[in-house]
């Protein structure tokens, strides 16, 4: 949900502005007449369910220009706090009605284990409800409905442009190189281009350039819309293009960054979001909010080797509905496994067993020779 505050001469002028910017579906949250430095104006807070193209979070001043504002962020935080409190009450009521004893001992043990491992109460309640409704449903089946799996292979994500997003240091550049090398190994003749759109941070850019040179792949940089247009014009010359996206600064969203870089219009682009289970739950919620775009297609979990609980993998999937596509259990180029089998994920969740490195796994997607 996007919340914006608009200001203008009078209510009608502001409501017209709300309609223009957020569309007819906007909901008015509050209307106030205010006075600042002797000037009277009207202030309207409005919300819209989905982000509209070209829209930036912020506040319109009396002059009409939108700019991020701490008041608006405060309003959003207060709405989130209120919603959190309402949710707590509802969950408390639902939780009181959970009778784990009505499930099989194995299901009870599974649900208790998930909750101890950090899976939110609301997800446990959802799983309980599913198991209670259908006595033949196994816990793993119920779980697979909450945490869908789609292996990070070219066949499962056939779009030519594959981009990697996520916070700084999560493992984007490393994962991009892994994937590019895997595609090259499976299809040695594939024409591959590595693109760094994270040009502020020299280290990642140089690493990509280095691997591109070593592996005879093309290397490009995107600093702004002109570079993005060049890459788009050259797309037909490549079979696969891998893009390293920048981490998003506080208060911004990836959608805005893609627009600023001129990348929002790149056709057939899949964006993967990399996260690590060792981020705090509130941090993961915030990253999901910041990095989710219309082009985001999967979650990749990295640094599993540094995490001690994995419940956030379930929570994030439940909250955003995106499939999990790969698990990364170490810094090495062979430490990642595309999730070709949901069982790998269940072993991680219930046994804390790290996925086998790509070279050890017998039938991992990248190595099976699927065409780029
Ligand atoms: N322990 C561990 N380190 C990782 C993993 N993935 C990446 N790294 C390391 O984390 C650091 C940051 O990775 P990088 O790909 O540059 O992150 P980026 O800033 O998101 O591009 C590097 O030293 C990587 O070797 C992982 O799964 N486990
Ligand atoms: Mg990087």
Task: Please describe the structure with a list of short key phrases separated by commas or semicolons.
binds magnesium ion; 13 strands; alpha/beta; 5-stranded mixed sheet; 40% helix; 372 residues; 12 helices; 3 domains; Rossmann fold
Provide a compact summary of the structure.
By secondary structure, the protein is an alpha/beta fold. It is built from twelve helices and 13 strands.
Task: Give your account of this protein's structure.
GO terms for molecular function: GTP binding. InterPro entries: P-loop_NTPase, SRP54_GTPase_dom. By secondary structure, the chain is of the alpha/beta class. It folds into three domains: 68 residues; 71 residues, no CATH class; 208 residues, P-loop containing nucleotide triphosphate hydrolases (Rossmann fold, 3-Layer(aba) Sandwich), CATH 3.40.50. The chain has twelve helices and 13 strands. An eight-stranded mixed β-sheet has the order 8-7-9-6-10-11-12-13, with helices on both faces. Strand 12 and strand 13 form a beta hairpin. Helix 3 runs antiparallel to helix 4 and helix 10 packs parallel to helix 11. The longest helix has 27 residues. The chain is flat. The protein starts with a strand and ends in a 21-residue tail after the last helix. The C terminus is likely disordered. The site of magnesium ion (MG) has 5 residues, from helix 6.
């Amino acid at each position: 949900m996007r919340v914006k505050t608009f200001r203008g001469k009078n209510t009608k002028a502001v409501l017209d502005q709300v309609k223009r910017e957020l569309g007819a579906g906007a909901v008015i949250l509050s209307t106030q007449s205010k006075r600042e430095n002797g000037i009277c104006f009207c202030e309207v807070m409005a919300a819209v369910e989905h982000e509209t193209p070209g829209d930036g979070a912020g506040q319109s001043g009396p002059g009409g220009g939108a700019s991020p504002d701490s008041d608006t962020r405060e309003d959003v935080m207060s709405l989130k706090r209120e919603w959190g409190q309402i949710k707590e009450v509802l969950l408390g009521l639902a939780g009181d009605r959970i009778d784990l004893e009505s499930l099989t001992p194995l299901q009870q043990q599974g649900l208790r284990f998930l909750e101890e491992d950090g899976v939110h109460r609301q997800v446990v309640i959802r799983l309980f409800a599913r198991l209670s409704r259908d006595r033949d449903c196994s816990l793993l089946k119920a779980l697979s409905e909450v945490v869908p799996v789609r292996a990070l292979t070219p066949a499962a994500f056939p779009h030519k442009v594959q981009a990697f997003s996520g916070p700084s240091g999560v493992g984007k550049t490393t994962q991009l190189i892994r994937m590019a090398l895997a595609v090259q190994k499976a299809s040695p003749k594939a024409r591959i281009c590595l693109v760094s759109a994270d040009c502020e941070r020299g280290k990642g850019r140089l690493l990509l350039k280095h691997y591109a040179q070593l592996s005879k792949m093309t290397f490009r940089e995107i600093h702004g819309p002109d570079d993005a247009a060049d890459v788009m014009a050259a797309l037909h010359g490549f079979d696969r293009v891998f893009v390293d996206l920048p981490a998003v600064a506080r208060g911004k969203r990836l959608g805005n960054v893609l627009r600023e870089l001129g990348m929002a219009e790149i056709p057939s682009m899949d964006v993967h979001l990399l996260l690590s289970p060792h981020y705090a739950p509130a941090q993961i919620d915030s990253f999901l909010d910041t990095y989710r775009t219309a082009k985001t297609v999967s979650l990749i979990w990295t640094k599993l080797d540094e995490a001690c609980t994995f419940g956030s993998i379930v929570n994030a999937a439940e909250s955003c509905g995106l499939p999990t596509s790969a698990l990364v259990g170490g810094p090495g180029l062979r430490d990642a496994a595309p999730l070709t089998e949901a069982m790998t994920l269940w072993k991680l969740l219930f046994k804390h067993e790290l996925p086998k490195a790509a070279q050890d796994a017998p039938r991992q997607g990248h190595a099976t020779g699927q065409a780029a």
